[in-house]
Amino acid sequence: MFKKVLTAAAIGLTLTVAAAQSWPTKPVRMIVPFPPGGGTDILARLVSAKLSEAHGWNIVADNRPGVGGTLGITEAARATPDGYNFVFGQKDNLVIGPWLYKNLTWNPVKDFAPVAHVAYSPVLIATSADSPYQTLADVVAAAKKAPDSITYGSPGNGTSIHLAATILEKEAGIKLVHVPYKGSNPAMLDVIAGNVQLLSSSVPSALGQIKAGKLRPLAVTSATRSSSLPDVPTVQELGIEGIGEFDVATWYGVMAPAGTPEDVVNSVNAAVNTLLTDEAVRSAMQAQGAEPLAMGVAEFGEFLNKDYTAWESVVKDSGVQLD
């Protein structure tokens, strides 16, 4: 009897291993929570295409935009956790969204399995090329002399790009006037025209106007400089009074519904991490203003949990809440 039980267990283990080795047997869906053509979409399609090419998988991008990227995350949370549903999420919709939108029904830590961290992108603080502000220190000094006299534009209320500026205000002890726009481009055009004095933006959105000589970059908010703008200092290295360690960046990663088979998660994590060592892939990401950064599954999970907890107070301090 005992031998029969062992035999049955061995057969079950063999079948499980065989099933894992046969994955995937059909197309894999990668939900992209933003429209085609944007920064998140470009990175998601790059990763999906390169993984398919390297492993013979068929990963299909499925754009589900809306509600600041949280609509696609909600779709992923409801998806079957069978190893055929993933989502290419980012800080704004996974970590900030749950604190910002009061009607969301999912929790990024409890309702998702972290699969692979892909990249991060700093926020850029810039001004027009003919602005009197030559450095970020000039901005801080002027704002301390005249609070609420300097305006800055962002892609919208509650985005990580907006909230990065609120953290900067708090740590530098200044008060700026936020002018939210519906996207980076209209904010940038108003800064160039002189209607708004500062711009808080993603690096990719502003690169073209910086190269054209219409925008002056002042600082990036990550702990290290951007490879796309190597001559632009970080906020931290400027040594502005009141600002110590400063590291605020948008990150991108692959997630799956909670309960997705662990062997599938580990396989995708290993594949993504290998992909991030490819120089052509790294260069393509850096051209989009993103810095590739690999993590193990457990490391990414700890990172997600810590970031989710940390941004609760940031969103609450901002006073922004959306339906």
UniProtKB/TrEMBL annotation:
Keyword Transferase (UniProt): no
Coiled coil: none
One Pfam match: TctC
InterPro entries: BUG, Bug_dom1
Gene3D superfamilies given in the database record: Bordetella uptake gene, domain 1, Periplasmic binding protein-like II
Database matches in CDD domains: PBP2_Bug27 (cd13578)
Keywords linked to the UniProt accession: Signal
Similarity comment text for this entry: Belongs to the UPF0065 (bug) family.
Name of the protein described by the UniProt record: Tripartite tricarboxylate transporter substrate binding protein
Species name: Lampropedia aestuarii
